[in-house]
Amino acid sequence: MSDDPVRDDPVSDDPVSDAPVPTDPRERLVASWDSNAAAWTDAVRQGRIASRDRATNAAVLAAVTRLRPGRVLDVGCGEGWLAHALEARGVSVVGFDASEALVRAAGSGPGTFVRLDYATFARDDDVIRGPFDVAVCNFSLLEAEIGGLLGALVARLGPAGRLVVQTLHPLTLGAERYADGWHEETFDGFGGAFAAPMPWYARTLASWSRVVGDAGLVFERLEEPRMDGASWPVSLLFTAARGPGAVGAEGPR
User: Fold this and answer.
1) First CA to last CA distance, the chain
2) Are 180 and 203 in contact (CB under 8 A)?
3) Dihedral, CA atoms, 171, 168, 207, 223, nearest 10 degrees?
4) Of 31, 88, 103, 105, whose CB neighbour count within 10 A is largest?
5) Which is nearest to 184 in space by CA: 163, 202, 164, 207?
């Protein structure tokens, strides 16, 4: 899995291929990243995604670095651009992703990278050990069920740890489709030879609030990055901390 899985034009719900694919959206999601790893890595590294270069990259870097972390967990690290950028700023980063091809690409730069799916991470405390100052999910929470993952992330945060999440802004769905549910990304606006469409699960703002709260977290900061001159945000970016009374919550200073 990777980051920024949305185009600058409206999301399409039409598949681009009639080839047989797994019917379960989560299985198709995981398979799509292995199929598209090379095309995705090229698109990112050649700067072909305008929303990243003009808004979302700088926004998530600022959100993480303002917390002055020493150790960061990059969840769904993809081809590794965020981990590499943080390492260049003196931050120690561990990244993991379910796609072996993307983990190999990430390994071309600084940082520690592990091939690992979210389910294994959530159930096995020993696969990646904390504590981390920040866990960051940059356009990488694409599945319908993420409660177990969020709980596992919280357990690996230090007492003052923070969760930083950037995701497609819910308003991008539009009034007619403003609801939780599966959609399909075809990568038409990214250039390159993307071999398979990618299912991804959208959430409303209320849904994000519920899943964050269920993990024992509270919103600390909400941002809506947008490109210069645009009136519409391209993403929702939030920082969350343990709520009062949560296990591991930092006490009064």
Assistant:
1) 38
2) yes
3) -80
4) 105
5) 202
pLDDT in tens, 137-161: 999 999 999 999 999 999 999 999 9
SS3 content of the chain, % helix, strand, coil (to 5): 35, 25, 40
Whose structure tokens read 């939780």? 180
CA distance 13 to 30: 18
Preceding omega of 131 cis (within 30 degrees of 0):
yes
Q: Are 232 and 168 in contact (CB under 8 A)?
A: no
187 Ramachandran zone, left/alpha/beta (phi>0; psi -120 to 50)? left
What CATH class has 25-242?
A: alpha beta
* Contact between 57 and 49 (Cβ < 8 Å): no
pLDDT band at 22 (very low <50, low <70, confident <90, very high): low
CB-CB neighbours of 252 under 10 Å: 3
* Burial class of residue 229 (count of CB atoms within 10 Å of its CB; 0-12, 13-18, 19+): exposed
Phi, psi of 123 (to 5 degrees): -100, -15
Between CA 146 and CA 94 the distance in angstroms is 20
pLDDT in tens, 35-65: 877 887 888 888 777 788 889 999 999 999 9
Burial of 54 (0-12, 13-18, 19+ CB in 10 A): middle
Q: What is the pTM of this model?
A: 0.86
- 184, containing H or E segment: strand 181-185
| Apex 250 CA angle, 249 and 251, nearest 5 | 115
